[in-house]
Amino acid sequence: MTKRNKIVTFGELLLRFSKKDHQRLSQGDIFTSMYGGSEANVAVSLATLGNQVEYVTRLPQTPVGKAGVMRLQELGVGCHHVLFGGDRIGTYYLEPAAGMRSAKVIYDRAHSAYSELQPGMIPWYEILKDASVLHVSGITAAISQNAADATFEALDIADELGVTVSFDINYRKNLWRYGADPRTVLKKMLSRCDMMFGDAIEFEWICQRQQPPFTATDTKFEMQMKEYKEWFDELHQQFPRCQKWLMGMRNMVASSRHLLTALLFTATPDTEGKLLKAPIFDINGVVDPSGVGDAFMAGLLHAIQAYPDDPQQQLNYSLAASTLKNTITGDFNLATDEEIQSLL
To answer: Where are the beta strands (DSSP E) in the chain?
Structure first.
């Protein structure tokens, strides 16, 4: 039997607009643009690390939509099952953080080609028949009811074919506009996944329980591991299918200086969970933190294949990949395996 190595990611490709030189959106005359989007970011990072990856989305059959596919293909991402249809690509406007000023994001995704996706449009049996992992995120269910239904269709077929499901909470409050309760929908997705990622704030939001704060200002910060272990044990009891829980933790001292670490909780329905911690990286010189969570998840997916019996190495690799993303402009993490290994 042929070993399954292909990783499939599913989500909306976006066009990102920003002004130059940390200008506010109300300043200047020139916008710069680049492609991104959570699930596409994961796909690009995996391809950069040498994995076979297929990205599934729906785009308008316009020069802008076709250029997005060309960009992904340039970076080694398979796009054989990208659907074309609809009238527009989803966009977002990013005002980068500067000094003590927070970043600002404005979405413009209503009536995008992806938001009008419906169940039955995507040939999931063909796409997933040789896949090892299907990666989705909460964003895929936030855009529209049709997109949510198409996401759960993919999860159903992944289960039928024995494909591992990877899930990023990716809670975006401003996207949930079609009437569904986001916590209910995302908990339903979480119950269907085998591994997941979220930042500390998202974990707190989805389980409605406060956790020990990460307030590190240097790399000597002591993590409250006993409290975190109790917290993850309780969470795993609610969602016993999930066997790997990766939580990214960040303290932003300033826009250009972040303290970053992560925890990995591993468990099965028949074994007691084990909690691992990664080192703390003090990133002084942050260039662009967009897509850092996606770099975490891609790093974990790659490391699971590279180090299947070493969860500590999986965690450390994931954190190193995410740390390097902070130094790269744009949504995509273009850090190579050699660079990640060097940082480790």
So the answer is: 6-10, 14-19, 31-36, 53-56, 58-59, 83-84, 90-95, 104-108, 131-137, 164-168, 195-199, 244-254, 257-268, 271-277, 281-284
Q: How far apart are CA 285 and CA 291, in angstroms?
A: 16
- Percent of the chain's residues with pLDDT above 90: 90
Where does residue 58 rank: exposed (0-12), middle (13-18), buried (19+ CB within 10 A)? buried
Backbone angles phi, psi at 38, to 5 degrees: -50, -55
Cross-strand pairs, 167: 136, 196
* 203 vs 313: CA distance, rounded Å: 23
Cα dist from 330 to 32, 36, 302, whole Å: 11, 8, 21
Give the number of other CB atoms < 10 A from CB of residue 210.
8
Per-residue H/E/C for 218-282: CCCCCCCHHHHHHHHHHHHHHCCCCCEEEEEEEEEEECCEEEEEEEEEEEECCEEEEEEECCCEE
Q: How far is Cα 227 from Cα 291, in angstroms, rounded to an integer?
A: 28
Q: Are 20 and 32 in contact (CB under 8 A)?
A: yes
Q: What is the pTM of this model?
A: 0.96
Query: Residue 1 pLDDT > 50, yes or no?
Result: no
Residue 134 and residue 164 in contact, taking contact as beta carbons nearer than 8 Å: yes
Bridge partners of 10, per DSSP, are: 56
Q: Tell me the pLDDT tens digit for each residue of 324-334.
A: 999 999 999 99
Task: Return the minimum-mean-pLDDT range out of 49-53, 163-167, 265-269.
Answer: 265-269
Amino acid at 72: L
Is residue 323 a contact partner of residue 343, using CB atoms and an 8 Å limit? yes
Residues present in the chain in total: 344
Angle made by CA atoms 260, 263, 267, in degrees to the nearest 5: 165
User: In angstroms, rounded to a whole number, what is the distance separating the alpha carbons of residues 79 and 81?
Assistant: 6
Q: Provide φ and ψ at 25, rounded to 5°.
A: -65, -25
What phi-psi label fits residue 127: left (phi over 0), alpha (psi between -120 and 50 degrees) or beta? alpha
Q: Are 147 and 86 in contact (CB under 8 A)?
A: no
